[in-house]
Design a protein that fits this description.
Shape of chain B: globular
Number of helices of chain B: 6
Structural class of chain B: mainly alpha
Mean pLDDT of chain B: 87
Order of helices and strands of chain A: HHHHHHHHH
Largest interface: A-B, 57 and 48 residues
Strand content of chain A: under 5%
Radius of gyration of chain B: 13 Å
Number of helices of chain A: 9
Radius of gyration of chain A: 23 Å
Oligomer: heterodimer
Number of strands of chain B: 0
Largest sheet of chain B: none
Largest sheet of chain A: none
Helix content of chain B: 55-70%
Helix content of chain A: 55-70%
Distance between the termini of chain A: 9 Å
Shape of chain A: elongated
Mean pLDDT of chain A: 87
Number of strands of chain A: 0
Order of helices and strands of chain B: HHHHHH
Low-confidence stretches of chain A: 3-8
Distance between the termini of chain B: 18 Å
Low-confidence stretches of chain B: none
Chain lengths: 223, 83
């Protein structure tokens, strides 16, 4: 995977000064006394609005509602405030402070949802049902003769080509349909590490299917 | 297109893919760039490549976009993630 390109930050003036609102946030959260306390209270209010809005936006994907959903929003906002206050010295003004802070609130909602599902898993982590794979990829039952061999070849490649860790993560996410953020909690890992492992597994599996003639070669898209 | 086109697309990897950590690092800038100029995918191609294949990060992107721009901001998703 590659590093992303960087562009000129939007929120800095031409002489590198923070926009006024961001500057106030940084000064007060980096201070002490009543000014600091008031800034933390305002930050909590801001992030709670965001986490509440975010859990409402995602509520269709969640088996919880009402007080439990609001509790999740409160937990996410509280943890986001702690994270933002701890990292405020790292804020470089590359976006508005409020946008930067809201990013942590959104991420905390994802984390809390993952933890909630991990406590109440819909699918046992050690399950493995390859018969569900065609449905997961929306394969047309009418074309079973066409894709049955491909699925069998994919299964062989998963068993023969992947490391134990790659196989574990591929089966959990792709075969069992476990959301990635739940696997993060289950394995005590990070989203980035899980994604990278799955990324490498996808690359290996595609190469195997190409080598064995099941998929057309497309060198320019592969690393 | 074969009937396993969705499987084929899933297995394709993009070498430009920035990964989850880099995407999180840049997500605030990506969202502000998109809202101000509508060209975040061109300015941050690695993030755009990542958002085309990572559902959790897409959720975070859509959530931040909605938080900053309001729910209507989510309609920009297709133009910025290529999905």
């Amino acid at each position: 995977m590659a590093s992303a390109d960087l562009t000129t930050p939007e929120s800095l003036t031409s002489d590198g000064v923070l926009d006024p609102e961001s500057a106030v946030w940084v000064r007060r959260l980096g201070g002490s006394g009543s000014e600091y306390d008031e800034a933390v209270t305002r930050l909590h209010e801001l992030l709670l609005r965001v986490t509440r809005s975010e859990v409402r936006r995602r509520r269709g994907q969640l088996p919880i509602a009402g007080p439990e959903l609001d509790d999740l929003a409160h937990q996410a906002a509280a943890d986001a405030v702690i994270g933002v206050v701890a990292k405020v010295a790292q804020f470089r003004g590359e976006s508005r402070f409020s946008t930067w802070a809201c990013k942590f609130a959104i991420f905390e909602v994802s984390t809390k949802i993952g933890r909630h599902f991990w406590q109440k898993p819909a699918v046992p982590m050690d399950a493995e049902d390859w018969d569900r794979l065609p449905d997961r990829f929306g394969l047309d039952p009418a074309g079973v003769a066409e894709w049955r061999d491909v699925i069998a070849a994919l299964h062989r490649a998963v068993d023969d080509e992947l490391t134990d860790r790659q196989r574990q993560i591929f089966v959990a996410i792709v075969v069992n349909g476990t959301p990635l953020d739940i696997l993060v909690v289950e394995l005590g890992s990070s989203r980035n590490a899980i994604y990278k492992t799955l990324f490498d597994a996808r690359r290996k599996l595609r190469a195997s299917l190409v080598t064995n003639g099941y998929l057309a070669d497309d060198v320019s898209r592969q690393t | 297109m074969s009937s396993w086109g969705s499987l084929e697309r899933f297995l394709k990897t993009d070498p430009a893919d920035a990964g989850c950590a880099e995407t999180f690092e840049l997500l605030d800038r990506y969202v502000e760039r998109e809202l101000a100029h509508g060209d975040a995918a061109e300015q941050f191609p690695g993030v755009a490549a990542h958002l085309s294949s990572c559902n959790p990060c897409v959720q975070d992107f859509e959530g931040l976009l909605a938080a900053i721009a309001g729910p209507a901001g989510s309609s920009r998703r297709e133009s910025t993630t290529g999905r």
